[in-house]
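Job type: complex structure
Entries:
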Amino acid sequence: MSNKPPAAAPAQGTAPAAVVSEHTALHARNVSFGWEDTPLHWLPGDPFATHTINVLHLLLPAGERWFVHVYKQVLPYIKDEQLRADVVGFIGQEAMHAAAHDDVLPHLKRLGLDPTPYTAQVDWLFEKLLGDRTLPPGRARVWWLKERVAMIAAIEHYTAFLGNWVLNAEELDRRGADPVMLDLLRWHGAEEVEHRSVAFDLFMHVDGSYRRRARTWATAFAALVFLWQRGARFFMENDPTLVNGRASVGQFVRAGRRGVLPSTPAMLKSIPTYLARTYHPSQEGSTAQAAAYLATSPGANGGVVPADGGAAR
Amino acid sequence: MTRTTTTLNGTLTGTLTGALTTTTLKVTAVAGAAWLARRALRRRIRTSPLWPLPALETPISGYSPRRLLRALIVSRTEPADGVVQLTLEAGDLPAWTPGAHIDVVLPSGLTRQYSLCGDPARAGVYTIAVRLVDDGRGGSREVHEHLVEGAEVRIRPPRNRFELRPAPSYAFVAGGIGITPILPMLRAATTAGADWTLLYGGRSRASMPFLPELSAYGDRVTLVPEDEAGLPDLAAALSGVRPGTLVYCCGPEPLMAAVAEAAPDPAAVRLERFIATAPASAARPFTVTLERTGTTLTVPADTTTLAAVRAALPDTPYSCEQGFCGTCRHRVLAGEVDHRDTLLTDDERADSMLLCVSRAKEDHLVLDL
């Protein structure tokens, strides 16, 4: 982001080390999911776990559109051709994620759970609070761009964590989760694992300061906890099929033990992981596993009735 | 000695009791305040789930213009020879204004646009009318054969490219099934107290839908069935309109061309054209002017618009290069676009294009780049 030459490599042992074999070329996949048959509680008999995962549909459409919006502006600052190609692939994948999750929202509304009160506020968060703001060109604008790039890197740490979790969450299959919803989550999760290094690499390329990494992690983490607990609560309290629906930390911990949500200890462990000076996303998760899922995902391979009605050529 | 101890003890107990009372009071006050705060927060969260964040006035998430709605066909009638009228119902159908149309995604996957011809005041109900076209591209045949009462149909939200602008008077011209977007306009114009006339042409009375509805308007409506009265005399009908009159026309292409020619003020003419999605023709070379950059490029037949633009502006965003992710969507300032993507709605196509797959229809485009 500056015209200065890149700083000299930091001393051994403190630099983030990428696992080279985990790199793969990225491209967006044209997916389609048909929501006609997905029930409200797509994880049978477990409204809390269903709704906690459903919070993704509330956050991702606006959030991932914001990623794309920010990354389009970063393109001129990328001086590395390999990274530029990664970012270009990342942008298309994120645009498709946003659109795919957006399609679930009208379905929830049809099922009697209108998400608009919540999503309109998420829209405000990403469009206004985290939008471009009226800043003078130059340092202020670049600072705000870097800050957002760092926030995206922190959020992507969690999307990769969740992606890795859902690819391995066999408990969801055992409990008869709706196949279309599971495919959406796993296609998305697999692409998150596949591109898990891009946001971090981009942040290291344009800034890389540890202080900014730690600061934006704290912001992103606090925001995610806030958004998630309010989201789970919103769904539980407004679910037309539940009487006195409540969301609580206890339910979350227990669902994590059952394996239908990420476990609380694993989530806590991911905090020091991201804050370690030698952290690099490629050190966790498996690109091969993600690629294997993507090769067989019905949604990513046109295996269902296309949601756009088959207008695709 | 004993007495002193007792006094001491008494003082101690008194102090302790006093301290305890103060502590109890404080705890009660804090607990009470916490309870009140919690109740107040709960009340706010009930109506504003992310309180204290405000909401975006026009929500975006969940309201994509490309989203699919599912509606039930609650009635199917034949208001004229070769015309079926479908009434669609669903709980979540968005509001619309006269002139709007919807995409209907047919069971085969074909997408066709049909004007809404019902009453916008009736929430949750859409009405469309479709004429069977023998030599058409199969859409109308599919509607006639497969969209039966009780079936579910997938549609996209209404869009309006044929908006009824406020005016003191209107001259409406409809040809055949082109009456569909005009019909709700007549109602709106009447309600608004505007002065209006309708010239409605068709092959024969039997083939012209909505004649009973139109009879209520009396002599404002002029019917011109071709088998009785020949083609409508547009020059006579439009030459006498008062200045300020807007002319709205929907019908076959020759009729719309004739109206545009006969109208005294061409700027007052509004036409409803449906963009035909013609099969992709062979790519031809063309030129692109980048308005803000101030350069003009040539796009050879074997190169995409995106590649040519990127040669001049390497930081132009793009991603999938196949016309589905939408990253390279850009505003078009001038020139007709040959849209080859599978993403954009025709509203979006009116002023933008995907650089990665779409090209110029003629030989020049001007982009806002």
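Summary: The radius of gyration of chain A is 19 Å. DSSP finds twelve helices and no strands in chain A.
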